[in-house]
Amino acid sequence: MADLVKAIAGRAIVAGEAEGEALVTHDALSFWGGYDFHSGEIIDRHHPLAGQRAAGRILAVPFSKGSSTTTAVLLEAVRAGTAPAAIVTTGVDAFFALASIVADVMYGKSFPVVALEPADFALLETGERLRIETSGVIRRT
Question: What is the pTM of this model?
Answer without folding.
Answer: 0.94
